[in-house]
Amino acid sequence: MTTLLAFLAALALLIAIHEWGHYRVARACGVKVLRFSIGFGHVLWRRVGRDGTEFTLSALPLGGYVRMLDERDGLVAPHERAQAFNQRPLRQRAAIVAAGPAANWLLAIALFAAVAWLGSEVPKAVLGTPPAGSLAERAGLRAGDWVRAVSADGQQWQDVQALPDLQAAVVQAQTQGESLHLSVTDAAGHGSRSLRLETARLAGRAPDAQLFHDIGLAPLAAPLIRQVVAGGAGAAAGLQAGDRVLALDGQPASDAGFVRDVIRRAHDGTTPRSLSLRVERDGRVIELQATPRVVEDAGRSIGRLEIGVGAPPERVFVSHGLLDSLSLGFQRSWDMAAMTVRLLGRMLVGEASLKHLSGPLTMADYAGQSAKAGLAPYLEYLALLSMSLAVLNLLPLPMLDGGHLMYHLFEGLSGRPVSERWQQQLQRVGLLILMLMMALALSNDVARLAGWH
């Protein structure tokens, strides 16, 4: 129930903000708005505003719309022609269309800023064992290293308050095709040294789980088994939630990162390799043999025991001043928009998997998880979803705001509007593309929930 309510509340807010953007700019441009609707289908609630706009809440909450007076939709009384959308100057029509995504973008900035200002408990920038072959391992990072500052040039340094600051700096450097300098101490703050993380090598890569694994920055966490999937390879080996891994194949298990890396590499191509585990359970030491299941992940074979490893890492409370929070809100929203566009582009040309597309089931699951985690995680979820909605609506596809902006761009360049015949044909193509995207996203949701991805 929490998941459903959190998801519906998120949808209602983001749709309302989006349509409010269209509505307010339309009214500012002198366009008469006939209906402002949250949802589609059967009307559950209706109220008429002082300006004559009908405000409605409908049964199907997966969208909304603002219906404006327009001569293309029917007859318009002569005294109201000046209030018709199609009679307004091109710049005003374009502004009305762009106002919806702009409203979602501003909301994302405000929510990211609110999270930064309110503060939250986040993992400390103390790192676990980096995966073999990762950038972190090549840079010389070790389990227990504490990243204190980062620099693009090795001269001007920016303090790192917690792991999210480090991850944001790494993603920004990777996105820009630059390397990143790290100022590191041990977990107690002693023995300062500088390292160079060669993020430039991964320039152009999509921001997915494989990218972050190849970078290799994860918080230090004790090698405690949190979860064992029923019927999985770990359960078959006799592992139980609460077990603490002491050693793998005779090597001491320093932290959860070490355990995960050994399990991932426990195979020879498609053939799994058996692992010897020493675990502590209720004060007793137990020896077990486990054979991982070999699966394909982002085009690579990896071993999986189908267990969750890692005790909660050490956390610190981080908050920012109001001006810094606004700056961070803008920066985070911009970085996310840029990453989303790049990922969509890479999926379009086949350089990134279409499995990255998520649909309503995944969004609802994240809504429930973030709502249970607290106010700050839920606000951050709303910010991410609002930014995604803004970017999606700006795609140059008919049926979306971006498609209508392309019509206006054509009109501005050619001096004539797109013909109704062409608009009808393009609308059909756009609807087909959107339906295919929705079907793919929903199938990805089902596959994730079923454990097929």
TrEMBL record:
Keyword match Cytoplasm: no
Residues in PDZ domain copies: 103-188, 213-283
Keyword terms, alphabetized: Hydrolase, Membrane, Metal-binding, Metalloprotease, Protease, Transmembrane, Transmembrane helix, Zinc
EC numbers: 3.4.24.-
Transmembrane segments: 94-118
Chain coiled-coil ranges: none
Gene3D superfamilies (UniProt xref): 2.30.42.10
SMART domains: PDZ
Membrane topology per record: Multi-pass membrane protein
Compartment(s) where it occurs, according to its Swiss-Prot or TrEMBL record: Membrane
UniProt main location, coarse: membrane
Any one GO molecular function term: metallopeptidase activity
One Pfam family, short name: Peptidase_M50
Cofactor(s) the protein requires to work: Zn(2+)
Annotated family: Belongs to the peptidase M50B family.
Name this polypeptide is given: Zinc metalloprotease
Organism (species): Pelomonas margarita
Upper lineage: Bacteria, Pseudomonadati, Pseudomonadota, Betaproteobacteria, Burkholderiales
